[in-house]
Design brief:
134 residues, alpha+beta, Thiol Ester Dehydrase, Chain A, five-stranded antiparallel sheet, 3 helices, 34% strand, elongated, MaoC family dehydratase, HotDog_dom_sf, (3R)-hydroxyacyl-[acyl-carrier-protein] dehydratase activity, UPF0336/Enoyl-CoA_hydratase, MaoC-like_dom
Length: 134
């Protein structure tokens, strides 16, 4: 059983090929994500990763690792504070902030940091349900 304060961390990065695959899967072909020439003309200066692709790390962790298999990922609220780029190592951090034992749900803080610089890139809260773990 999990308790308030329990936490989990995972490092991740995405390649440009993975971003391009996500363009195909999602249908979001905004050139800001795949066209280096286009992105160079913007405030970002190079292609940025889709926010939904970054948030997919939250789904992976909640469904497979923390709280893990058998969990249902119910909701997510995220604030994307800074752009994320390909081939950069990021660290996703998860922390249980509340538990409703009657509904078998937990609110889990979901954050992404630039691992090298320590800057907060994404800040949010997700909710998961798991009858065996909450």
């Amino acid at each position: 059983m999990y308790a308030v304060g329990d936490s989990y961390e995972i490092d991740f990065s995405f390649s440009q090929e993975q971003v391009n695959d996500f363009c195909k899967i999602s249908g979001d072909f905004n050139p800001l994500h795949w066209d280096a020439h286009f992105a160079a003309q913007t405030v970002f200066k190079k292609p940025i990763i889709h926010g939904a692709l970054v948030a997919s790390v939250f789904s992976r962790v909640m469904g497979m690792e923390f709280p893990g298999q058998g969990s249902v990922y119910i909701s997510q609220l995220s604030e994307f504070k800074r752009p994320l780029y390909v081939d950069v190592v990021y660290q996703a951090k998860f922390k249980v902030i509340s538990i409703d034992t009657l509904k078998h749900t937990a609110e889990i803080q979901t954050q992404v940091f630039d691992k090298e610089r320590g800057k907060l890139m994404v800040d949010g809260v997700g909710k998961a349900m798991n009858a065996e773990k909450f």
